[in-house]
């Protein structure tokens, strides 16, 4: 913890001061910024371990910034998103931005410190259970965020651990969604969606083929192109996984 360097990015000065005080009390090294431009400069200069990032910053886009952080070469900071306007759509966008955790404002110091320790120590094996057996809409959303925080462990219940993170997972997820929508998916679009080169995407696709989760076939309309599709086993696993993380299972909506 003494060596963990945290950058807090929020436009509210009072919140920045409160969070900084709590983290410094727990012996973190803390940096605070109010704009993405200044935060980007600091990340380029300092070896930041964790970025606490507000989703909504006036005139700026926290989610786009989070995605840009995820596309940096290692070492790069892990991102914990914060939002006082959390919706299920926001959570989905946070997942696609490769955020490591999500805090719904207002959050307690205990919730924040637990999120930081999850990022520092890795993911737990058991999803956090809802505290309220009949949650309100707000409570269900918070529970959905907590379940999402542990989704990497959930993935490993349905898929080999080698594919449960990073670009391999992003590619598998894209192919799964395309399959359910009845449309083809191509290596070039998979590479763009995962933010990687086509050569790197093809390596991940080959790994997924070896595991029997996807197939690569010639496009019937243009044999120069390849179409990536889910296998029957991959589709079944993806459907089971998605069913396990639906908000309806938490009483939302």
Describe the structure.
The chain is α/β, with parallel strands linked by helices. The chain folds into 2 domains: 5-122, Response regulator (Rossmann fold, 3-Layer(aba) Sandwich); 161-242, Winged helix-like DNA-binding domain superfamily/Winged helix DNA-binding domain (Arc Repressor Mutant, subunit A, Orthogonal Bundle). It is built from 11 helices and 9 strands. The chain has helices at residues 13-25, 36-45, 62-70, 88-96, 109-121, 137-149, 151-155, 166-180, 187-194, 198-210, 232-244; strands at residues 5-9, 29-33, 50-54, 56-57, 60-61, 78-83, 101-104, 214-218, 226-230. Helix 4 (88-96) links the parallel strand 6 and strand 7. Helix 8 packs across helix 10 and helix 8 (166-180) crosses helix 11 (232-244).
Give the structure's gist in a few sentences.
By secondary structure, the chain is of the alpha/beta class.
Oligomer class: single chain
CATH names the topology of the largest domain as Rossmann fold
From the alpha carbons, calculate the radius of gyration and give it in angstroms.
Answer: 19 Å
The order of strands across the largest sheet is 2-1-3-6-7
- Model regions low in confidence, pLDDT < 50 over at least 5 residues: 123-137, 246-253
CATH architecture of the largest domain: 3-Layer(aba) Sandwich
Major beta-sheet overview: 5 strands, parallel
Number of helices: 11
- The chain-level mean pLDDT equals 80
Structural class assignment = alpha/beta
First-to-last CA distance: 39 Å
Shape annotation = elongated
Question: Could you say how many structural domains there are in total?
Answer: 2
What is the CATH superfamily label of the largest domain? Answer: Response regulator
Indicate the CATH class of the largest domain: Alpha Beta
